[in-house]
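task queued by scheduler; priority normal; single chain, no ligands, no partner chains; default sampling; output format set to structure tokens
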Amino acid sequence: MITGASQGTLSGLRRLVAAAMARDLCVFIIPGPDISRAHGLDVEAAGMRPVTSPRHASVLLVVGPLSPALRDAAATIYAQMVRPRALLALGTNQLSPLPPADVSIELSQQALIAGVHRLRTAFTEAAFCPEIADFDAPMLQIRIEYTCPMHPEVVQNEPGSCPKCGMTLMPHEAQASTAHAHTDKSDKPDRGSDMNHDTPVEYTCPMHPEVVQHEPGSCPKCGMFLEPRETSADSGHEHQPKPQTAAAEYTCPMHPEVVQHEPGSCPKCGMFLVPR
């Protein structure tokens, strides 16, 4: 069922609001408007208004079968949509980790028009349904793991000491869907971490690959969380110039008061200095 805006009986003012929502269906399309047009679909002619951000959409339209990576991205998008929201699937029933579609139809313009009519009825009747089904994409859940500042390949789920140098492990956030079967990840590096190997990592949007950043964050176009990807050290992006970096200073992880302008060893404990 449609995940309603709030609990309550559909009467009076709420009935009017639900009717207004049913008339103005804002749709976010996956894999994208170009794909829907390639299949001969005209969402505006069917009675929906396309939007460029999932935060402004009340309907998520899935066009055709999606790859597992795109289904994960679609689940993240759906979780960020405001309520009430609905899922309309054309030509596919494989949606996991998305919830079941509110309306599932064949891939054609005529079926789309009929599906939009069913969606309007569903919004009118269920925008303020008493029972609200919640949805949280697994990719958005955050957990804490612990790693060594000097040996980033050492990762544990509990605080403790590094088995290689004895340093206290430091906490950092990680996606809950990322699992580590062992403490030392040196034998099997994690693709999503830029500390496990020497290959540089940049961050890009699954829905807008032209958006590339050197730090994690959100896509400025759709608001999705950026995903890491590996890149060669000498590769550049003409569409996004790299920011100028200031001169690096080097400090000791155990003695932060020790600061030098050149790499070397800490005069107090002998540890290698790290840049900051």
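post-processing summary
- The chain has four domains: 13-126, 141-191, 198-244, 247-276.
- Residues 1-10, 178-197, 235-246 have pLDDT under 50 and may be disordered.
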